[in-house]
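Exercise: predict the structure of this protein bound to NDP.
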Amino acid sequence: NTSRLVGKTVLITGASSGIGAATAILFAKGGSNLILLARRADALKAVADAATEAHKASGVQGGGKIATVQLDVSDRAQVAGLWEKVPKDLRDVDVLVNNAGFVHGVERVGEINASDIESMFATNVFGLIAMTQLIVKDMKARNTGHIINIGSVAGREPYVGGSIYCATKHAVRAFTGSLMRELVDTQIRVSEIQPGMVETEFSVVRFRGDKSAADKVYEGITPLTGEDIAEEIVWVASRPPHVNLAEVFVLPTNQA
Ligand code: NDP
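Solution:
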C-alpha cells in the first residue's frame, strides 16, 4: 500500500541516473511531489520529464509537482543555498533519499590518488551528512519525516580493491545507525538500503569506462536494476508511521 505517499514531498539526491532516476519515477507514479538533485542539469531534466509522464499515466490524483536543482552535494555552500532554488510549496520534505554516490575505480591502497580518495568521501560521506543536517532540522521542527540513506553491501563486507569506497559506505552505515538512535524520541524514521550489484552507470565508472571489465563482474549473476532498488525504497517509505525498516540488505540471487 503506497497510498500513504500521495502528496508527500520526496527529495532525492543523485536523481539524474541509475537508482535515483528509477526512484524518482516510482515515487511520481505513486503521487508524490519531487525535488530532484544532481550535477548534470540535462540528465536531471530528462528524469523530471519521465517522472511527469509516469505521474500522468498513473492517473493518481495528487502529487506531480517536480523541482529540479543542479547541485553538487559535496559543495557545502551549494547545499546551504538549496532552498533559494526550491519553490516554497515544496520546502517541507517528508522523505529524504540520500542516494548520490560514486566510486572512482577498483584499485589497491598504494595506487589510489589523493584526489580520488577525497572526492569519494566528499560525496558519499560529507555530502550525505550535509544534506541530512539541512533537512533534519526542518523535520525536527515538524516532528515528522523519513531519511533513507543508500549504503551498500560494501558497507557491510569490505572487498579487495574497494578500500576507500568500502570505508565511505561503512561510514554511511555508522552515521545512519547513530542518527536513528539520536532521533528515537521523535517521529522521524531513519533507514538504510544496502544494495548488492546493481547495473547502472556506476558499474562502468567503477572500471573507468572499461565495459568488458564491468561485464565480467556479472558473470553467472543477473544484477539488480535501478528499478529493483527503487521498489525497496518506496516500500520502506510507505510503511505505516510506527514501522521503521532500519536496514534492508538486497542482493542479486546469485551474489554471495
Ligand atoms: P549512478 O552513477 O547511475 O548514479 C549516481 C548518481 O549520483 C548520479 O545521479 C550522479 O549524478 C549523482 N552524483 C554523483 N556525485 C554527485 C555529487 N557530488 N553531487 C550530486 N550528485 C552526485 O549509480 P547508482 O545509481 O548505481 O548509484 C546510486 C547509489 O547507489 C550510490 O550511492 C552508490 O554508491 C549506491 N550503490 C550502487 C551499487 C551498484 O552496484 N550500482 C551497489 C550498492 C550501492 P550527476 O553525475 O549528474 O551529479
